[in-house]
Amino acid sequence: MVIEAKPKNLINKLKNIIYHKISFMLMNKIIASSKIMKSSLVHNGFDSKKIDIIPNGVDINRFRPFTSNERKINKKKEMRFKEEEKIVIFVGFFTRRKGADLLIDAWSKVIKKESSAKLLIVGPYKPSKANTNYEKSWFDLIFYENIKKTIKNNKLSDSITFTNEVTEVQEYFKISDIFVFPSRKEGMGNVVCEAMATGLPCILTPYIGLPDEFGTPGEEYILSSSNSSSIAKELLKLMNDKTLRSQIGFRGLKKIMSMDLTNSLNKYVEVFFSLKNNK
Hints:
globular, 11 helices, six-stranded parallel beta sheet, alpha/beta
């Protein structure tokens, strides 16, 4: 979570005072998952001495690349993709906040030059028949209908696969070639860590909360401007340069190894024992 420095209205301002100020003052320790989150908290008046940084850990045993290209090809075929198809993956709620509109607009440009490419969208994109309150909290019917219209008008249906929610998301990462995440606002962004741990080159946009822990743009990941033309350009660049894909993917993988879930859990244990001993 990154706190807005200037709440937009009176209700948000009151929430900011009650939740972020009063409740946090009662805490002995605050855990921020990135440097930028700690900076945001300090900027909003919190004591930096109370704040520790512990990155969201990623299970590097679950999220890791295939050990051979042959295994990747076989898995692609098993999941009904062709060997020669380049797969671009997006993981998360398919909403405006996650940049779904930017992604679809970008894809309409990509597919004109890479007609055999596939866009794999993994995660909830419409409510279930139950239509729970949880689903109502993120689903925007008008946005969803506009996205459907864009897909239809640009004849993109054959190049896009929607999975809805899945349990074995790592399998979808493993068969993919590029991860794209044009989000407008995030915290640490677990899916980015998972994509990097799987060895995928990642294309991100400069969203609110983008952490330093992901590395340097152009080295461990690609940073695109927040518009569809730039995203399309970066996608096409990676699609047509296998060496660059490998280099960015490898450096991202190397960077994320320090964020192994075990390391993060051990740091939490240290914090708990520290609080216990200081009682």
